[in-house]
Write a structure and sequence with these properties.
mainly alpha, 977 residues, 14 strands, single chain, two-stranded antiparallel sheet
Length: 977
């Protein structure tokens, strides 16, 4: 077996020998013959390489019946063809007719078949050129030399020195021509040997000392030993042959002359790299044209071997696990393949064939596939594959998403999908493979992703890359296994916006949301939020995502509750105005919460029709509370301090939630509370059902619901809170509650005022119906107003506001425990002057005490005109000052007898019996003065001891009136001295 040293020696001998023979020939033939040989052979070679393609192409299309005759020797079916070009479909029918119909083949396939035919013809032509045509060429040159060369002079000088120089050139040219073909062959052998497996060094065979006599000779044995199949593993090329080929390649490439020849380079057909001229010329011969590209067999073998070598050197070669291919190896394979002219040009045809084979519509015409820059495309696919394998390798090693390689970040993901967007093949595959695959209900992933129609895959890849990149930037993961509310709630607005640039993610989320609920509530999705493809509009999805983030509270879920979503609708009660703006920017959230409130209406809330929207949801109409009203309800519930919607009704306990911290209700809170028409209607319904009297004057229609006006509700709440009402139902307005309250607050409410008035008037009479001396409270008609309740006019059914305040104060002073209590003269008599003055500010009390006093027959006819006035629509009412003075006088006069102003008898003797201080009090009363004046006048007229009286001693200087207090005191003093 030849070794490396052998090949090195033989190549040196051969190559230098060719040059040496050229020099020797030059010395022998001399300058002229050597030059003639050099020029003619140079022309021969140049003509070959310049004209080979043109000649072969001409031969390929040349029409001649002789072509069919010649080919008929191969197969009679070729007899009718008149050109090599026409023989191609016939050959396909002959040799591939069972599987391929030539009539159905595309022009590209036929072009490829024609290119292969031209390749065969080119080889045949090359052989003929350097054999038959070379002989013909030499004969022609010899004839030309005879004609134009002149007579040969055998004695002429040959110039062997110059002949040797030209001989050298002849030798170099011959060697170069030899290196063209041999170098190309060696390069092909090199490509083959690269992919052949290395053989382990065999163990030495055991020595068998026994002579195998019975095997001494078998006629059928080969004289050359061969290796057993079991030992070589069916190796097609013997191990020693492989080693020998490798040694030959090594020796050839290291040869000095080969190295020198390799210095002369020329750009290859793609213009991307320089190759040695001899290999370039070899490729001109062993190549064929396809799709305007020159496909060189040597280059394709080299590319193929490099790809195979990458695979053989990878772990995949032994494991057959795709994940064992590294990203660098995958990238190298694609980079290498992209340098193959054949693969670059065959790609459109291969893809077209694959599409036909798998019965897939690529959505691209052959012309569109051919227009792709496949060299760039393959490089882009390499970038994609490299990125994918980085992830595959990490996952194959059990790496979780949080510990992926450092290069996997948001930019890495964006770059991956940008490459996919820049890949024409990926775009077509998206339409032809990815879309049908994801849309197939038999695929697990189809239950997650939804593919919208007419998708622009280039834009979609970019959008998905941006979305997943943004998600990875925030969470170090891009593993999307669910795209519902629970996923998007954790994303930032920026990521959310990027997610919804993707039509696939929009379509997917749209479908997912149709089956999702929010804190136990099914989402209400109005038709208005869908686009023309029945997917949610991007604007709505953005708004929805931002909205649900406001009502997500992971603390609502117990650790052991795997089914808990973390959404709590009650979170809306903690939102400020700006957050509510965000919340209700989503029509879905607005509709969902609106439906929640509407459904509460039958049990808890009273909802006027002006607060309701009718939304088209699918084929149905759904009633929901308007968004503007929802906000007002939330603000109201927030003011009331509700932490959720789990309440059955509004009770009087809500009053405590409106306290401003000083024991009174906060006016701002009340304003916020009753801005909601629903809350207004709900509380109005409660009050109308439970409070005894609600005047029509404080009622209004809010839509289709009768409500109490907002002003009155605020006043009523303040009044009820001031009264300490603990239950709207069954509460009476009793004196015990009223007398402790601030009347200015309580009586601002028309409802409370009417209710208290009604409670008082149930036991009161008018001045017209009162019997003198009666203990019944009298409320004169002049201090009453008409009131309409439930469209029924109740005449004089309401006590005037100022009178009611004064009356309640007076009744409080009188110690009323119930409005049915009668007046007590003894209680009145026990009051001091200040209390009496305060009490008598009430006209009703004034009239009542007047009536009670007039029931005392001892004074009825002795009430002076000056003590009477027409008050409260009643004639001759004792003025308040006189009532006070008379009660005080009666107290002094009846102290010993226990009498009071209602039954006291007035006498001069009684007055005289008092001390000076008491007399001064008693004589403040005009009634007392009027009663004792006649007796004093009689005493003063005593002729024996007269007290002269004139008009100045009388009230108003009128003797028809009673004596002045000072006069009376003087008279008493005069007669007691």
């Amino acid at each position: 077996m030849l070794t490396l040293n052998d090949f090195t020696l033989y190549f040196n001998i051969a190559f230098f020998g060719i040059i040496g023979l050229g020099v020797l020939g030059g010395l022998v033939h001399g300058f002229k013959k050597s030059l003639y040989t050099f020029v003619t052979m140079l022309i021969f070679y140049v003509i070959f390489f310049i004209t080979i393609d043109a000649v072969v192409n001409q031969l390929w299309t040349m029409e001649s019946e002789q072509i069919g005759v010649a080919l008929a020797y191969v197969n009679s079916a070729f007899a009718s063809v008149t050109s090599f070009d026409a023989a191609v479909p016939v050959a396909i029918s002959i040799y591939l007719g069972d599987t391929i119909d030539p009539a159905l083949l595309s022009p590209a396939v036929m072009s490829l078949a024609g290119g292969l035919g031209i390749f065969v013809l080119k080889i045949v032509y090359t052989i003929l050129y350097f054999t038959v045509i070379l002989i013909i060429y030499k004969i022609i040159c010899w004839i030309i030399k005879l004609i134009f060369g002149g007579k040969h002079d055998p004695h002429a000088a040959k110039n062997p020195g110059f002949g040797a120089l030209i001989g050298l050139l002849n030798g170099v040219m011959a060697l170069f021509v030899f290196l063209i073909m041999f170098g190309g062959v060696v390069d092909i052998v090199k490509s083959v040997t690269i992919i052949l497996p290395e053989q382990a060094e065999a163990e030495p065979d055991a020595v068998d000392l026994e002579f195998p006599r019975w095997e001494l000779y078998e006629a059928h044995y080969s004289l050359i030993d061969y290796q057993e199949t079991a030992e070589t593993g069916n190796q097609a090329i013997p191990e020693n042959a492989i080693a020998m080929m490798k040694d030959m390649v090594t020796a050839y490439e290291s040869n000095l002359l080969v190295t020198a020849a390799g210095i002369i380079t020329i750009p290859d057909s793609s213009g991307t790299r320089e190759i040695p001229l001899n290999l370039y010329l070899f490729d001109m011969v062993l190549s064929f044209e396809f799709a305007d590209k020159q496909i060189a067999i040597r280059n394709e073998m080299s590319v193929f071997s490099e790809v195979i070598m990458i695979i053989l050197n990878s772990d995949f070669a032994t494991s057959n696990e795709i994940s064992d291919l590294t990203s660098d190896e995958v990238k190298s394979m694609f980079s290498t393949v992209s340098s193959s002219e054949f693969i670059v040009t065959i790609m459109p045809l291969a893809i077209e064939f694959a599409a036909d084979y798998f019965d897939v519509d690529l959505g691209a015409t052959p012309e569109q596939l051919a227009a792709i820059d496949w060299e760039t495309e393959l490089s882009t696919l390499g970038d994609i594959a490299e990125s994918i394998f980085i992830i595959i390798n990490a996952q194959a090693e059990g790496t979780d998403w949080s510990t992926l390689p450092d290069q996997v970040d948001g930019d890495f993901i964006r770059s991956l999908f940008t490459s996919m967007a820049n890949s024409s093949l990926m775009i077509y595959m998206g339409e032809a493979f990815i879309e049908p695959y994801l849309s197939n209900p038999d695929n697990t992933v189809s239950s997650f992703f939804v593919i919208p129609p007419d998708l622009n895959w280039s834009n979609e890849f970019l959008a998905i890359g941006e979305a997943l990149g943004a998600i990875f930037d925030e969470s170090d993961t891009f593993a999307l296994t669910e795209l519902g509310l629970a996923t998007i709630v954790n994303l930032t607005p920026s990521s959310i916006n990027k997610i919804f640039d993707s039509q696939i993610l929009v379509a997917t989320i749209s479908q997912v949301l149709l089956t999702q609920d929010l804190d136990g509530m099914g989402l209400v999705i109005p038709n208005s939020v869908f686009d023309a493809n029945d997917y949610l509009k991007k604007e709505e999805l953005n708004a929805l995502a931002l909205s649900i983030q406001l009502i997500y509270n992971a603390t609502t879920c117990a650790p052991e509750d795997d089914g808990c979503s973390g959404f709590a609708i009650a979170e809306v009660l903690n939102l400020d105005e700006n957050e509510l703006d965000t919340l209700f920017s989503s029509e879905i959230i607005s509709a969902t919460v609106g439906k929640l409130l509407y459904d509460m209406g039958s049990d808890v809330l009273t909802i006027p029709n002006i607060s309701i929207d009718n939304l088209e949801v699918g084929d149905s109409t759904v009633n929901v509370v308007k968004t503007t009203e929802i906000r007002k309800v939330f603000n109201a519930l927030n003011v009331l301090g509700f932490e959720d919607f789990e309440f059955s009704s509004f009770t009087a306990s809500i009053l405590n939630r409106l306290d401003d911290g000083t024991g009174s209700l906060d006016s701002n809170k009340l304003t916020t509370l009753f801005e909601s028409t629903i809350i207004q209607a709900t509380i109005s319904s409660i009050l109308l059902d439970n409070l005894p009297i609600v005047p029509d004057s404080v009622k209004e229609m809010v839509g289709n619901v009768e409500c109490i006006t907002i002003v009155e509700l605020s006043n009523a709440f303040k009044a009820l809170y001031e009264l300490g009402i603990t239950d709207f139902a069954g509460e009476n307005f009793t004196p015990a509650k009223i007398f402790l309250a601030d009347f200015d607050i309580v009586l601002t409410s028309e409802i409370v005022r009417a209710s208290i008035s009604d409670a008082i008037l149930d036991f009161a009479s008018t001045s017209e119906t009162a019997t003198p001396g009666s203990l019944t409270l009298i409320v004169p008609n002049s201090l009453r107003q008409d009131v309409t309740i439930n469209d029924v006019l109740i005449a004089k059914g309401l006590i005037e506001l100022n009178e009611l305040k004064a009356l309640l104060n007076a009744l409080s002073l009188l110690g009323f425990t119930d409005f049915s209590n009668g007046m007590s003269a003894s209680t009145i008599a026990s009051m001091n002057a200040a209390t009496l003055d305060e009490m008598l500010q009430s006209g009703s009390i004034h009239i009542t005490i007047d009536n009670l006093a007039k029931g005392n027959s001892a004074i009825t006819d002795n009430i002076p005109i000056l003590a009477l006035d027409d008050l409260y629509g009643v004639d001759d009412v004792i003025i308040a000052e006189e009532i006070r003075n008379f009660i005080l006088a009666a107290n002094e006069l009846g102290e010993s007898s226990g009498s009071d102003f209602s039954d006291i008898s007035i006498s001069l003797a009684g007055v005289e019996s008092l001390d000076t201080s008491s007399q001064s009090i008693v004589l403040n009363s005009m009634i007392v003065l009027n009663i004792i004046t006649p007796d004093l006048e009689t005493i003063c007229s005593n002729p024996f001891n007269p007290y002269v009286l004139d008009s100045t001693d009388y009230e108003d200087n009128n003797t028809a009136n009673f004596l002045l207090k000072a006069t009376v005191l003087d008279i008493i003093d005069f007669y007691t001295l």
